[in-house]
Amino acid sequence: MKILTPLEIQPLLNQGALLIDIRDTDAWQLEHIQGALSLPFPCSESGVLSHLPLVGKQVVFYCQTGQRTAALAARLKVMAQGAEVCMLKNGLNGWKKAQFITVFNPSLPLPLTRQVQMLTGFMIMAGVLLGSAFSYYFYFLPSLIGAGQIFAGVTGWCGMARLLGRLPWNRQG
């Protein structure tokens, strides 16, 4: 897969290249490149791309930093058969660093995954600090959070994300 800079991709977009964001929908809704389609991975493996006229077209995939796109390069190439497949170097972050405009919706909360990461980090740090300062019983908190993260990774169900999703700022409509 060719890795192109934002400066190299800009003319391709003007010539009709298809730009596909493989991040989660909530991240795309918060901020994305103008004209990009949201096709979250692994949902994008469902064959949605096979319904688009891709033969002879250029398709540019991107994520937040470019790491996920690079890791999935082989699978993305297979999904976009018939097209010239490229990826945006350094993803959305690289696009913004090159000072290209993005569509940003400040009224939306941070993506739920980032909220979970921030809360788990805070709870782990609090448990460690309280355990060091007061009682080793506080070490139970980081252990519980770690077990919850393992469970979420294995099952795909995250209780903390479910709880955070019910908070007023995360409710849609």
UniProtKB/TrEMBL annotation:
UniProt entry keywords in alphabetical sequence: Membrane, Transmembrane, Transmembrane helix
Parts of the chain that traverse the membrane: 118-138, 144-164
InterPro entries for this protein: GlpE_sulfurtransferase, Rhodanese-like_dom, Rhodanese-like_dom_sf, YgaP-like_TM
Domain Rhodanese span(s) in chain numbering: 13-100
Pfam families: Rhodanese (PF00581), YgaP-like_TM (PF11127)
Record-linked Gene3D superfamilies: 6.10.140.1340, Rhodanese-like domain (3.40.250.10)
Keyword Transmembrane (UniProt): yes
Protein name, entry field: DUF2892 domain-containing protein
Organism, scientific name: Candidatus Pantoea multigeneris
Organism classification: Bacteria, Pseudomonadati, Pseudomonadota, Gammaproteobacteria, Enterobacterales
